Amino acid sequence: EVQLVQSGAEVKKPGESLKISCKSSGYSFSTYWIGWVRQVPGKGLEWMGIIYPGDSDTRYSPSFQGQVTFSTEKSINTAYLQWSSLKASDTAIYYCARQLNGVPNFDYWGQGTPVSVSS
Amino acid sequence: QSALTQPASVSGSPGQSITISCTGSRSDIGTYNYVSWYQHHPGKAPKLIISEVSNRPSGVSNRFSGSKSGSTASLTISGLQAEDEADYYCSSFTSSSTGVFGTGTKVTVL
């Protein structure tokens, strides 16, 4: 069974760093892209970007380029989303999702990680 | 990359059919047959219900169907049921090799 399990809710202050995780199981981690999707409270889904664990190829949406960093650790089938300096506007739910190589849609999703940034 | 344009809300009575539009441009929907649709119940993970314009993943009800004409894609829900009440998002591949979601449509079953 394919599963993507994300790390738990985070409460941070502006300027702090953060790294959230997404652990995959039930499929070959290196042969599917992992995507990240943001949902700000009361707003819609936003496509942040994708990373290919096989070679760490990444595609960032222009809106998120330079604002976040994607990474993976193949030995533990885990993808990461990180911020070096959080802002209040980063408050959102962040979802990871799996994308088949060559078919740009997300077929399996994690449960979401709520991130709250407030002073 | 601007979000694809969807109506904010669509409603229908049980058993009726409704259609949600998703308008993009030649940089996305107009060029690529990589349009997906997702159903999102608040508090849960989004669910893929249509891929590549009109393909239904295994296990998705055949009451959901997708189509595309030019730069506009559409999702039709036939035989509307109470459980279909949710937010729906379209998504497309873009010429930048990235993706983009639609603005989202809240479906209400009257």
List the helices and strands and how they pair.
The complex is a heterodimer of chains A (about 120) and B (about 110).
Chain A: E1 3-6, E2 10-12, E3 18-25, E4 32-39, E5 45-52, E6 57-60, E7 69-73, E8 78-83, E9 92-100, E10 106-109, E11 113-117
Parallel strand pairs in A: 2-11
Antiparallel strand pairs in A: 1-3, 3-8, 4-5, 4-9, 5-6, 7-8, 9-10, 9-11
Chain B: E1 9-12, E2 18-23, E3 35-40, E4 47-50, E5 64-69, E6 72-77, E7 86-93, E8 99-101, E9 105-109
Parallel strand pairs in B: 1-9
Antiparallel strand pairs in B: 2-6, 3-4, 3-7, 5-6, 7-8, 7-9
- Biggest β-sheet of chain A, characterized? 7 strands, mixed
Count of DSSP H/I helices of chain A: 0
Ends distance of chain A: 40 Å
Instruction: List the chains of the largest interface with their residue counts.
Output: A-B, 24 and 26 residues
**Rg of chain A, please?**
13 Å
Question: Count the helices of chain B. How many?
Answer: 0
For the residues shown, what is the average pLDDT of chain B?
96
Share in β-strands of chain B: 35-45%
